[in-house]
Structures are given as C-alpha cells and as structure tokens.
Write a structure and sequence with these properties.
two-stranded antiparallel ribbon; 92 residues; binds zinc ion; 9% strand
C-alpha cells in the first residue's frame, strides 16, 4: 500500500463512523472499521471506495451487512452520497 493511501485511510478511521457523526450527532467517536463500498474484497481496492463505520453500523444490529444494503441506504443515504460528503469534510 502506498504511503498516501495509508494516510488517507488513517484519516478516515480517525474521522469515525459517518452514520454516528451525521445521524446520531456523536462528536467524540472512537476509531472505527472501514467498510468497502463494493461487495468484492481483495486486491485492487481504491480508497475512494471505502467509508468508515462503527461495528454497530457495519456488522452490528443496524449494520449494512446485517440489515442489507437496500434498507440501510434508505435510512442513512447511499454509500456514494456518504462517501462524497466524507471526502468534502476530509478536504476542508
Ligand atoms: Zn456508527
Ligand atoms: Zn463492510
């Protein structure tokens, strides 16, 4: 992994779960997991295809992998939208 990518990923992890931050109004977030927007995992992943999510919103009770992409996106917005907003906030 390139150094710049690593740094960017670190920034996302430190940003915290986007759902908790934007929907639950939590400011002081612990470092979180990285969710890959594409279902495929493996090599060739680009950082623009990731968003940070806490366990609860990732694989927990309200997790995208638990309730399904469709239901999750109806509640919190599409992953693309969340990702776009995240990039804007990270670049401030
Ligand atoms: Zn969360
Ligand atoms: Zn995931």
């Amino acid at each position: 992994m390139k150094k710049a990518d690593k740094l960017h990923m670190q920034k996302m992890v430190e940003f915290g779960c986007v759902v908790c931050r934007w929907y639950e109004g939590v400011d002081d977030l612990p470092p979180c997991n990285i969710h890959h927007i594409r279902d495929k995992t493996g090599l060739g992943m680009k950082d623009e295809e990731m968003i940070p999510l806490c366990h609860y919103h990732h694989q927990g009770r309200m997790g995208i992998h638990t309730i399904g992409k469709k239901m999750w996106e109806e509640r919190y917005g599409t992953q693309r939208e969340l990702h776009k907003r995240l990039q804007e906030e990270l670049c401030k």
